[in-house]
Amino acid sequence: NPTRRRLHNERFSLVKKFIAYAKRNIPTKAKILEIGPGSGIYLPSLRTASNEIVASDIEKTYLQNINIPNIKLIEDNIENTKFPSNKFDLILCSEVLEHLTNPEAAIRNISKILKRGGFAVITTPQKYSLMEICCKIAFLPIIINIVKMIYREPILKTGHISLRTQKQITANFVNNGFKIIKHKKIGLYIPILAEMSDGKIITKIEYRLRKNHYLDWLLWTQCYIFQKIS
Q1: Contact call for residues 155 and 185 (beta carbons, < 8 A)
Q2: Is 153's pLDDT higher than 90?
Q3: Burial level of 128, CB count in 10 A (0-12/13-18/19+)?
Q4: H or E element, residue 72
Q5: Is 153 within 8 Å of 138 (Cβ atoms)?
Q6: pLDDT value of residue 82
Q7: Bridge partners (DSSP) listed for residue 114
Q8: 3-state percent helix, strand, coil for the chain, nearest multiple of 5
Q9: CA torsion, points 121, 221, 205, 136, in degrees to nearest 10?
Q10: Angle at 79 (CA atoms; ends 136, 217), nearest 5 degrees
Q11: At 120, phi and psi to the nearest 5?
């Protein structure tokens, strides 16, 4: 549906920009890892940065669905990783931390397997964003039937079991030897307005919220480039 397309396309474009930034600042023969690649939409962008690309996931089935040549696929749980220390120059972890039972352990391991000076591109939903609040409301017994009528498609739970605020995410990375290079919050969802408008109004509101430090927690996704400094 148009609402979901707009939200995901916005994140897709920003992550590609963050990858492009990291590519300019890592070695030519860099080792790159994507944790939880999903369908592999970012792997083509990562391949242009290096010939040594690894994609890892805890579910072997997900990896088997990736059909992109010259990508090494490894079954691994980032909460208890098998990767050796100081192996990678760039790690992408987009929309994964919120699905883990212990994202703090995952962040420690990202720091462990990333080389000093390397980059981590991270995206995860904001805990109290309008989207996450609406998702919780949407699954209430009466409300879910209305939601199904509006979207005319199956309504699935997000699986977001470990949402964290910006303060929590940044503190966890900083405490594990990172500094923030770039960050941005994106993705405004307003019920009814999102479904009934062409998106221009929401885009304008989102732009204003992004400029307001006290209200940008309403936006759905927090996106970062972290650099490991210690």
Answers
A1: no
A2: no
A3: exposed
A4: strand 71-75
A5: no
A6: 97
A7: 88
A8: 40, 25, 35
A9: 180
A10: 35
A11: -120, 120
DSSP three-state, residue 109: helix
CA neighbor of 110 nearest in space, from 120, 101, 102, 100: 120
Find out whether 216 and 183 touch, Cβ atoms under 8 Å: no
What is the token pair recorded at 226?
């972290």
Neighbours of 30 (CB within 10 A): 21
Q: CB of 209 within 8 A of CB of 189?
A: no
| Tokens describing residue 7 | 């939200």
Q: Label the pairing between strands 52-57 and 31-35.
A: parallel
Tell me how far apart the alpha carbons of residues 1 and 195 are, in angstroms, rounded to a whole number: 9
In order of 22, 50, 160, 207, the CA distances from 54 in angstroms are 16, 11, 25, 35
- Tens digits of residue pLDDT in 67-92: 888 899 999 999 999 999 999 999 99
How far from 135 is each of 3, 33, 62, 106, CA to CA, in Å? 13, 30, 25, 25
The pair of three-digit structure tokens given for residue 15, joined into one six-digit string: 């992550």
pTM of the full predicted structure? 0.94
